[in-house]
Each structure stands twice: as structure tokens, then as C-alpha cells.
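Q&A log
Question type: sequence-to-structure
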Amino acid sequence: VTNWTGDNKILLQMTLQSWMFCRLERWGTRSRRLDMEHQVQIVMDTDERENRSTLWNSACDRFELYVKLEAMSILEMALWKKQIKSGWDANRTKRI
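Response status: OK
Response body:
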């Protein structure tokens, strides 16, 4: 991000497409993918080295938040399925 050339920019865009955007798309989180595409585009359009680095760190932090939210959602779904399979109701009483 700090050593910016035309070739580096193209390589970064291709890498982010397969690593970040496709990952968000597979999760079915279109709004998050669009948000990240917007954040990365802001980084790409910035010419100032220091500002670009700050924006990049912000975009990575946001992506990390999305990863954590998705992991929590998957965990909640797994726990919910486990509860249903075990025969317990939501109020912790055993179903007959």
C-alpha cells in the first residue's frame, strides 16, 4: 500500500477481488461486499501515501469486523441447531 505503482495497484485489486470480495459474496452478505468494495476504491483513488495507509488500515479493520460477525452468526446457528436436536425448548425445558 505504501509502495504504489500502476502494476501494484492492479495486482492489489485482483488479490482483493478473490480474497475479500468473493469471500463476502459467498457468505451472502451483498451489502457488506458493496461496502468493502467502496472502502477499497477509496484507498485506490487516494494518491497520498500516508492517507492511503490510514484508509487501508481502516478497510482491513472493517473487514475483520465482518469476519467476526459472520463467525458469530455461524456459531449461533450451530448452537440453535444443537438445541433443537437435543430436545430442549428455548426456555430450557425438556420437550416431551
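Response note: The chain is about 80% helix and 0% strand.
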